[in-house]
């Protein structure tokens, strides 16, 4: 586990992976969206609105996956004091929040023609909105910690505690009567016809690659920022020691 | 050795904290199981009826053959059922596109003294099935054959 803890070694790998991940993600997601928007037939009930599915569902999965990334990285930071874990958690917050916001926006656009309403306070929609607010709180807290130089342990604890919301989002449509439909895809089976399922899975892979690429790029940026700051501090401290 | 111990101690502490947290979350979700439901199903509404005139939501399937339009043209009456019970519903206004007999609906409104549910708003509930139009009247095996043919 600590093999990749060396920032130089990590940077070497990250530098080589970032661009292929971003390009691969763009190509796959773009192809899947073109497929979903232009080729796939309309749904028997929803008609053309079914095409929102190919953005909404991957965004929902990655919104939750982003928080799981934060939670696992926070665990690694708290328990093993892994030096890159704090960085990984912080890097996953903004892309995760973006996907959660995309999920909420596209869901609302889909809900208006399908359900007849932009928004309802049912279990699934509310818990997903809570996830977006958790992300915003996390980003604000991370910014405050970076500014004041405080311990990042409180951020890791927040990341772990917030993970309780992810299974609640997942189970909300099973535990409670909700306007949102129950899960279409469960382990090993799908109520989504193959013509819709194939582009959906390709879009999910594409968006996941994009997510990975963005997280790596942000980790590199955060590392570079820390290094630049350390250099500035050394330079500022150096004259003082010479005169002292 | 000391470092290893500290590491294990932290792991145990975090696991205990997570288990406690998960327990608390599940208990909270369990306590909310009635309050957090978005709507009553018909059997729950008949078994433990809400107060007359109280704003509630009723959700279920629109019973096939029960939908009728009143002479004024905008008032509709239909039965909402869940397999165990049925509640008559009356609504005046524009219904969502997906509102058809045999599909799910959530009606916002209140129960009247005569047992009819007077809806002020209707929401169509989509189920978890996604299927192209061409395949909807076919059985699953027919649909698979058709898909296989078009892919050849």
Write a short abstract of this structure.
The complex is a heterodimer of chains A (244) and B (152). Chain A has helices at 7-39, 53-80, 85-115, 123-148, 153-162, 165-175, 194-243, and strands at residues 185-186, 189-190. By secondary structure, chain A is an all-alpha fold.
Notable characteristics:
heterodimer; A: mainly alpha; Four Helix Bundle (Hemerythrin (Met), subunit A); two-stranded antiparallel sheet; 2 strands; B: 152 residues; alpha+beta; five-stranded mixed β-barrel; 3 helices; 6 strands; elongated
What's the architecture of the largest domain in chain B, going by CATH? Beta Barrel
- The number of helical segments of chain B is 3
Tell me roughly what share of residues is in helical segments of chain A. Answer: over 70%
Strand order across the biggest sheet of chain B?
1-3-4-6-5
| Biggest sheet record of chain A | 2 strands, antiparallel
Oligomer: heterodimer
Helix content of chain B: 25-40%
| Average pLDDT reading of chain B | 81
Could you tell me the number of beta strands of chain B? 6
Instruction: Please report the two chains with the greatest interface, counting residues with C-beta closer than 8 angstroms to the partner's C-beta.
Output: A-B, 45 and 44 residues
